[in-house]
## 1
Amino acid sequence: MISYEEALARILRHARPLPCARVRLEDALGYYLAENIRAREPVPLFDQSAMDGFGVRAPDVAQARAYSPARLKLAGMVRAGDDARRPVRSGTAVRIFTGAKVPPGVQAVVVQESCEETGGEVLVRESVPAGKNIRRKGEEIRRGARVLSAGTRITPPVIGLLATLGYSTFLVHRKPRVALLVTGNELVALGKPLRPGRIRDSNSHALAAALKDTGIGEVSVRRIKDDEPSLRQALMAALQDSDFVLTSGGVSVGEYDLVKDAAVSAGVRTVFWKVAMKPGMPNYFGVWDRGSRRARAGGKKAAPAKTLLFGLPGNPVSALVSYHQFVRHALLKMSGQRTPGRFVFPAALEKDVSKKAGRAEFVRGVVRVNNRALNAAPTDQQGSHMLSGLASANCLIHLASDATLVEHGQQVAVEFLSWEMHG
Ligand code: AMP
Ligand code: MG
């Protein structure tokens, strides 16, 4: 059995960023850039006022005070969007607004609160140095500068920045196509009648939602009986058509746990089976070569495409926790993420927790701020089959492999659950 860290490292070694695709700005949220973005123009585009006020020549207001204002002739008005071409001469000022282009000759802007307009003139009650309240052309971004690097996640401010720079399309990594195969003779689809011994299939819904949370929209979902030939056939089709195949159930050591054997007979190379962790011990991971199909990434010839296969245990909590701790990172790396994003912080444990040595535990917990530090407590329902314990958690409390008793007040690492980080 390998450790959680080793298993994650192996997965990330096999997960490679997918080839690029051009995407439109309005569809780009959540993708990762596949090119560096340079500024084709400076930002700001021109010298502009940072305030509503009056544009002046600095020497004209050098002696201005509240009790002895400078008196300047008002020589016009520039609003945002105006092309201010008429120069402003000594002894004059212009009314100017935030974002308006600064006309030639204007050296500073005095905020309107320090000025008083009286019939064709303005009294300025404050002395300002040259440059005051003016956003300089290129002060934020020089023309030609690299603004965003390949691998950047496209968030709302990144969208805004790309729009500022005039990019309506650009290259991103395409997202993985995912097939989700849910195994189990006992499973009944939502809305169908339950018979004795049967249960509702929750994993197909929970995992499809987890995929959506990771930004994966293209998912095909199939429910399969615990029968080797049908499983193998379904796997072969899924491996062919997807970048990532996710299975649920059938990876333990029971007589009807067929996923690993079916995968191997479909040509999947096993990378690991079983991880020293709880929940999620029976996790299976393998790789399948999609043969001669050539993928192109960034104009260079890429290695032959691979389909990754991750076999999640059927227990609903094990499935989601393993998804969160492994699958999510693989899918994000394939989507172009450069370093795994994990929200792990130190927290003080609120009660004693005991465990077996030799496996890492991810205890479902609630973390809260207490006197500017974090406190974490396990939720009540800790069974691998108890979804309610995960639904009420906002974090996973990490308990180290060698620990047996972690006491109240001890520092532990807590990892925020990605789906709890919204809203
Ligand atoms: P397995 O990993 O197939 O041995 O399943 C372990 C446990 O998880 C069993 O109690 C199954 O009934 C349950 N289980 C498996 N698949 C699902 C599913 N899709 N939805 C809900 N429970 C499941
Ligand atoms: Mg099963």
Note: The longest strand covers residues 360-370.
## 2
Amino acid sequence: MDNTGKKKFYITTPIYYPSDNLHIGHAYCSVMADTMARYKRIQGYDVMFLTGTDEHGQKIEEKAKAAGITPKQYVDHVVAGIKELWKLMDISYDKFIRTTDDYHEKAVQKIFKQLYDQGDIYKGAYEGWYCTPCESFWTETQLVDGKCPDCGREVKRTSEEAYFFRLSKYQDRLIQLFEEHPEFLEPASRRNEMLNNFIKPGLEDLCVSRTSFTWGVPVTFDPKHIVYVWVDALSNYITALGYGSEDDSLYQKYWPADIHLVGKEIVRFHTIIWPAMLMALNLPLPKKVLGHGWLILEGGKMSKSKGNVVDPVVLCERYGVDAIRYFLLRDIPFGSDGTFSNEALITRINSDLANDLGNLVSRTVAMIHKYFGGTIPAERTAGEVDDDLIALATATKAKVEAYADEMQFSSALAELWALISRTNKYIDETAPWVLAKDEANRARLAAVMYNLCEAIRIISILVSPFLPHTAPKIQQQLGAPADVLTWEQSGEWGLLPEGFSVQKGEIIFPRIDIAKELAELEAQQKAAREAKEQARQPEGIAQISIDDFAKVELRVAEVKDCEPVKRAKKLLKLTLDDGSGTPRTVASGIAQWYRPEDLIGHKVVLVANLKPAVLCGVESQGMILAADCAKEDVKVLFVDNMPAGAKIR
Ligand code: MSP
């Protein structure tokens, strides 16, 4: 609290890797954090909601190079797109940090130098397995089947002079943190995993500098070293508030964070490396790290297209932001993975939003117009079914809060929808169309309409952090004055003034014809994929000479046999006839697009003189060619009309 008397609340999302392909899974994380920020603001907290982008590292450097532009040009372009997405999705962040911001880079350099000066960072040599996509070093024992334990991709043996952070020194304090503050990391399953699988078995010092690339924050006192991206990235939570700069008033005001919201795969960085860094800097620790689950596609991971539209822009434009927000918040219990499908989304929209909520509002407004010309008369009489509705309506606030405080939005919404259902049931119980038949029931009919409006008023307030576009629309149709719409007033009954008038408005959530919609979506998705593909810049790909090309031996080969590889979901093992008389084995990462029976009997293009490599236990003697036809749609080149063994030139 400060002298304004307002309680502070600081919530963060992870800072996103700049990608022109942020999908609905990324949006999940931001929508969750945004809902919490809105919920706290409406409760009167002074909120700081931070998001941003994590822009350094080898991966970005490589992508920019391939596109023939500088890393800064690359990130500037992509970050603009990310900001647009958050604008579209109504993500009400208070601050957006980019790790390429000058003030951040300077503060990271200061942090690194301080840790070095005080002996928490020292110079040594690193040898280990490096996963470029994850920017992570792994020890031999951490690898799974010789691959990156996080993403399952190839790792490279790497050795370099490097700086190390004395993570091992903080092991005991981390154990103490986990044991004395079980609330530090939730859900509990993730806490146990961190403590028992990572911390207690022993923490090794962490390599915190790289010399293999230049796109990052240079170490001031040894500039060929670049600060490890995770040290750079994690620092954002304090540098964004001005820590390490001339004006650290926001840091003084908001730190420590109340919640770092992160996906489950980056919990390790946030609950081991980050608190250890803060301990070394002698700074307070964040109060809580919440590790959420992933949004996955039916039958596969989010990044693989299975005929579902997962581009949040397409979804928001089609159904409106609130429908998407609702689905994300309602369908995924906190901490668990959730499945996204167009069908599940449309079903939710139709049942919960169009039928339950939308109908309640439009029926009520229509009845008040029909029976009373839009204004409820003052004379009213109570009836026996009212008490039950009033009791539930006034109790729902506390129930929603109990869950929302814990970020269990799915359960909070379930409580709210119980009130919506109860209110719809109230219409059936009171049968206003029967009351309307007899003028003698006028006062009772007025009471029923008033009660409906009161329930809707309460619902509109409670729904506002979740559906920020919809709540004002409902309140406008209700004609409710602003002074009965505070959060506190969602727990009180009878606040609408006498003689207020409702307004007819647009249908809040139109019903969707599911079969027609699914067909259209598929067509739209295909078009969007093709457009995106075309927009990709082909420039920047290095030219090769004819001599370089002549080094590649391409041959027609017939697929004689094909089977999945047990240890690698992505791989198929193919047995090929390349005309030499000796069968040749090739492992190919096409399992998500082809079943073995789709390939057997077909002729394919083989790169015959590729050095053999062992992929997940299969010795691959070459490679077959395939085309990226659209994003995430790969097609093998079939050359069925040619004889096996024919040389391609
Ligand atoms: N740059 C790091 C975070 C550094 S924080 C100091 C990073 N970026 S990310 O762009 O890959 O991921 C950002 C967040 O999006 C993570 O919390 C991640 O879990 C979340 N998601 C990415 N795909 C997701 C789903 N399919 N479902 C839910 N969340 C997903 O990690």
Note: The pocket of 5'-O-[(L-methionyl)-sulphamoyl]adenosine is lined by residues 14-17, 25-26, 28-29, 54, 233-234, 236, 262-263, 265-266, 294-295, 302 (CB under 6 Å).
